[in-house]
Amino acid sequence: MKLSEKLLRYLYSAGINNVFGIVGREATExxxxxxxxxxxxxxxxxxxxxxxxxSAMSRFLNKPQVCFGTLGxxxxxxxxxxxxxxxxxxxxxxxxxxxESSGISHNDAHQCIDAVSMVKPITKFAYELRSPSELxxxxxxxxxxxxTYPYGPSFLSxxxxxxxxxxxxxxxxxxxxxxxxxxxxxxxxxxxINLEKIVEMLKTSKNPLIVPGDTVLKTKDGPKLxxxxxxxxxxxVVTPYSTKGVLPHNHRLNFGTISSHxxxxxxxxxxxxxxxxxxxxxxxxxxLIEHFPSAWGKRKPKKIAQINPYLNTSHIAIKPDxxxxxxxxxxxxxLIENASIIGKKLVTQPTELRARxxxxxxxxxxxxxxxxxxxxxxxxxxxxxxxxxxxxxxxxNRHMAGIFFHANKPNDFVTSAGFSSxxxxxxxxxxxxxxxxNRHVVVVAGDGGFHSNSGDIETIVxxxxxxxxxxxxxxxxxxxxxxxxxxxxxxxxxxTIYFKHxxxxxxxxxxxxKGLYANSRSEFKKALLxxxxxxxxxxxxxxxxxxxxxxxxx
Length: 554
Fold this sequence. Notes:
By secondary structure, this protein is α/β, with parallel strands linked by helices. It has 25 helices and 18 strands. It has 3 domains: 3-168, Thiamin diphosphate (ThDP)-binding fold, Pyr/PP domains (Rossmann fold), CATH 3.40.50; 191-349, Rossmann fold (3-Layer(aba) Sandwich), CATH 3.40.50.1220; 362-543, Thiamin diphosphate (ThDP)-binding fold, Pyr/PP domains (Rossmann fold, 3-Layer(aba) Sandwich), CATH 3.40.50. Strand 13, helix 19 (396-404) and strand 14 (413-415) form a beta-alpha-beta unit. The chain is globular, with a radius of gyration of 24 Å. Mean pLDDT is 91; it is low at 179-185.
């Protein structure tokens, strides 16, 4: 058989059923129909969509997904997707073609760049095959690296002529191990000693607070263990965006999702309320790719304990008093087993904070400037009865959703929490829907982020994905406006943020997608009902209005 077929057979043996991407001149040697009954090729309009969709899908399936690209511009176009996978801690394998092996001359031959050197700083493993016989080694190395904490992307470059090389027709499979269970960057020799110290810290603490990070989702039974720990010890939980939903929305110990934009959005000292009382923070699987609220270092002094399955550099900014490096599940189980020693804690509920958020959700007013984002999210929560996946693009809309979206399960809220690149929302929705075909998936995006990668509207139509996309349309990059007005100059520069108006409902229809408009709560509610009846994707062009949120968040 040809190496092109062997490649797909190997991927299938690793549990991979889809390859996202765009094929170029290498189509002379690989058509992706060599093993089409097992591995499906998903064509996208841009490599960013392919990479981010695969990356998002990997979050739900907890195993690497694959995307493919042509030689030359393929790897360069994948760079943002690679950065997304790296800083969002998602296992992803990017495979791109290279010119024929006999003609490789980086930066001199036509379409020949040194892609491996380019991507190496932001991948877990990067390699260009020197012989067809290296394929098995390279794929095994790529999968293993991607699934070793912290999860991330691997990259392979394959010369075109290798793809047509004849290789033995056998049943060999990739030899894989779950490296996340065995491979720690550092397994501290004082792991158990430091766990004992953390037990003592919890015992003497009056008001501890749990902050679970992304690695909790990569840990077997991680969310269940965090919930059990919180309930057994009666300790509240606050989450960054990546772990929103670890506790159900209405759980009494769920104190909400935190970000530096929280205070100005709700016009309330939320971070002070959440972080003033606690005398101890317990960081579980947390690292600095997640939002780091300034409140941690500016409120009254508190002890900090960190548990992580790998030695990361969060301590550079957070400066924990104790760091325990080792298996996260074993550590949490150990704390639970010591519940009788630690004792239950008293919890002061953030009643006023919750009331403030509830009041904003309940706002029924009609504003001539447009819908408030909190009104949109409230209608989404009600329409789907708090049971849907929200794939969020980047911008002020994401920070609004972080507060007002009701997540009840881990990964109900999928967004680029670490890299935060505009234009990723639609692709996140594609990956979420393909991984969860029986669940409702909604994409929320600002007009700036959405239109930066809107060509793949055609992709969701072609794939017949029943996704609802809500475009928060205010003809500007609203988050950038806020940054300008809280900066040192505190002034707005219109040329850097304002766009001409785009009619996204018409754009939807031009691509064969249902397009609707909403300028009020009642119109948005009707639009959701129409979208529900439509057997395909729907874009709702919602005219939004952000009240002034330009005060400093600290």
